Amino acid sequence: MSTVFVNIALSLDGYMAPEGMTMEDPGYKNWGEKWGKLMAWLLNQQYMREKLNFGPGGETGPVNDMVRHTFERTGANIMGKRMFDQGEVSWPEEAPFHTPVYVLTHEKRDPWVRPGGTTFYFINEGPEHALALAREAAKSRDIRISGGADVIQQYLNLGVVDELEIALAPVFFGSGRRLFENLSEPRTQFHIDTVLDGPNATHLRYVRQ
Predict the structure, then answer these.
(1) Pairing between β-strand 4-11 and β-strand 163-169 as defined by DSSP bridges
(2) Once rounded to an integer, what is the mean pLDDT over residues 160-186?
(3) CA atoms in the 13 A half-sphere facing the CB of 20
């Protein structure tokens, strides 16, 4: 069966996204600058620059290999409507997933097909239904819970997350959307599997006990 994993970046004070992060108000509390510092480690990787059509260059090495492995292992993605809304206006035409992406939403919308193999499906029946569809689509590959924080919390509360991959960046947001809130008992227990140091983040991988 596919492994269900979370792969995200996190500020040192535990936030996935800064307060007021919306494309409608890019200047609110300098969220764009904060987000840029959080994601600098990823946007500097050669593999990710190629994915986003940023042009040649970028870092190679263990972190770049880790990013490549994340994409290669993923057969389906799940995300929330907030993440999709911001990505819809900022991703390149060839969205960087190249898998089916299941968007948890109350909005009814036909699938959105993008060049390069990414199709967004809008799921109104809840997280368990989205996961069942993702398992079918992923086949022998794994399922990434991409975000945001509320979606990750839903899957943690369902007890279906097998791995947590967290890039802990040395930045402080002070406010925003925390990752580990609204979690119910009993909580899934994890152990540390690997730690990889990079110049802009420490990459922590936790595996379910």
Answers:
(1) parallel
(2) 95
(3) 13
How many angstroms separate the CA atoms of 28 and 9, rounded? 21
Angle between helix axes 127-138 and 149-158 (nearest 10 degrees) is 90
Global pTM? 0.93
Domain boundaries, the chain: 4-208
Whole-angstrom CA distances from 35 to 13, 62, 98, 102 are: 14, 23, 24, 24
Pairing of strands 119-123, 100-104: parallel
Which CATH number does 4-208 carry? 3.40.430.10
Phi, then psi, of 136 in degrees rounded to 5: -65, -40
pLDDT, averaged across the chain: 93
In this predicted model, what pLDDT tens digit does every residue of 45-76 receive, in sequence order?
999 999 888 888 999 999 999 999 999 999 99
Rg (CA), the chain: 16
Spatial distance between the Cα atoms of 45 and 63, rounded to a whole number of angstroms: 8
